[in-house]
């Protein structure tokens, strides 16, 4: 599996454990809270939370999620919002491109390059849960 996916799954599991406490069978009731908490935390690579990447501003309170009434002149605001979205996405892309080589260098410290030739024997470990019968 991808290391990033494993870290994300572990993080989400820890958030759910903290929220369910003594009632682990009620995890689906706290899933929206876990999702909100995870999406509100800034990413180390991009410096922005998923909410900021998608919606430009992080929600400050649950009341921020309530739909606001439409105001006159909304189209001007929408145009500015689109420009802001494009700027934020560009900024996040640049930060991710900057941080990728750092993460690659750290991951490469634990890897070794091995080349194989046609006909070489290799040992393959297959687990039941990863390979269909």
Automatic annotation (TrEMBL):
Locate the coiled-coil region(s) and give their ranges: none
Tell me the first and last residues of the signal peptide. Answer: none
Source superkingdom: Eukaryota
For molecular function, the Gene Ontology terms on record are:
nucleic acid binding
Tell me the InterPro entries matching this sequence: Retrovirus_Pol_polyprotein, RNaseH-like_sf, RNaseH_sf
Q: PANTHER family attached here? A: PROTEIN CBG26694, PROTEIN NYNRIN-LIKE
Provide the protein name: Uncharacterized protein
Species annotation:
Citrus x changshan-huyou
């Amino acid at each position: 599996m991808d290391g990033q996916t494993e870290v994300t799954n572990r993080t989400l599991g820890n958030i759910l454990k903290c929220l369910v406490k003594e009632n682990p069978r009620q995890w689906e009731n706290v899933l929206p809270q876990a999702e909100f908490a995870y999406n509100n935390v800034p990413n180390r690579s991009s410096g922005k939370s998923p909410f900021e990447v998608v919606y430009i501003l992080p929600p400050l309170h649950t009341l921020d999620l309530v739909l606001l009434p439409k105001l006159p002149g909304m189209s001007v605001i929408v145009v500015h919002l689109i420009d802001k979205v494009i700027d934020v996405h560009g900024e996040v892309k640049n930060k991710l491109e900057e941080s990728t080589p750092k993460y690659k260098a750290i991951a490469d410290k634990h890897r070794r390059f091995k080349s194989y030739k046609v006909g070489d024997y290799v040992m393959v470990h297959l687990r039941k849960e990863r390979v269909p019968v």
